[in-house]
Amino acid sequence: MEVVIVKDAPAGGALVADSIAALLRRKPDALLGVATGSTPLPVYQALAAQVRAGSVDVSRARIAQLDEYVGLPPGHPESYRSVVLREVVEPLGLDEAAFLGPDGSADDVQAACEAYDRALAEAGGVDLQLLGIGTDGHIGFNEPCSSLASRTRIKTLTRQTRADNARFFDSPDQVPHHVITQGIGTILEARHLVLLATGEGKAEAVAQAVEGPVAALVPASALQLHPHVTVIVDEAAAGRLKLADYFRATYASKPAWQGL
């Protein structure tokens, strides 16, 4: 893993946006895997600013969804499809046809999972997958003890994850109990994985994922098996990394364009 420690969340967002912009200059029709939640918002805001400034052309870019709640009606404001359309697709000026995502309202959820895995493969695979990390080390909705070879599938959310996500709903009882998520094996097929984490609350999970053993108990530790992973953390999220000083020195010695 390459670990980059930045000053704060806006700096991390700008760095990831620069990497996405560089990818789109090399491959204009790149398939970008996006995550939801508050952590990646600075990325989307910084990338949208570049689009408005005319410094990057995203007209041929495609967007792939990481996960989706099961059972929310189509168009529900907190479905991840709605969130991605609102926070990524619309600000970048993309057509909704450029968007790939699983169908969380399907009658046959398992078939929808399998169909989404096929759709990602038929689209040529994800070029860059942006990831967050849960306080328990989950990525996507691959909760602790998920198979490290898992494919896109339905998962039951833990009490902790439902509590973490309750802030997006009017009450905790409204948070769905099930989700469709890309499996760890599916995630690892992306060509470049970028994990973004900010805040002291993520420090322990980051340390276990980066410096701990590869273990199903910490799903994000599976990223150690991937040949091209970049972990971007702010100072607070880097607080428990034993090699933090080494990571700071390594990144400081590189030109900015080599950061990712």
Automatic annotation (TrEMBL):
UniProt-recorded Gene Ontology molecular function terms: glucosamine-6-phosphate deaminase activity; identical protein binding
Transmembrane feature ranges: none
Keyword Chaperone: no
Reaction equations catalysed: alpha-D-glucosamine 6-phosphate + H2O = beta-D-fructose 6-phosphate + NH4(+)
EC primary class: hydrolase
SUPFAM superfamilies, sorted: NagB/RpiA/CoA transferase-like
Keywords, alphabetical: Allosteric enzyme, Carbohydrate metabolism, Hydrolase
Regulation of its function: Allosterically activated by N-acetylglucosamine 6-phosphate (GlcNAc6P).
Pathway: Amino-sugar metabolism; N-acetylneuraminate degradation; D-fructose 6-phosphate from N-acetylneuraminate: step 5/5
Database matches in Gene3D superfamilies: 3.40.50.1360
One GO biological process term: glucosamine catabolic process
Gene Ontology terms: cellular component: cytoplasm
UniProt-annotated site: Part of the allosteric site, residues: 146, 153, 155-156
Active site residues of this protein: 67, 136, 138, 143
Pfam families the UniProt entry points to: Glucosamine_iso (PF01182)
EC numbers, comma separated: 3.5.99.6
Domain Glucosamine/galactosamine-6-phosphate isomerase: 14-224
NCBIfam families assigned: nagB, PRK00443.1-4
Family indicated by similarity: Belongs to the glucosamine/galactosamine-6-phosphate isomerase family. NagB subfamily.
HAMAP family per UniProt: GlcN6P_deamin
Protein task: Catalyzes the reversible isomerization-deamination of glucosamine 6-phosphate (GlcN6P) to form fructose 6-phosphate (Fru6P) and ammonium ion.
Designated name of the protein: Glucosamine-6-phosphate deaminase
Organism from which the protein derives: Streptomyces paludis
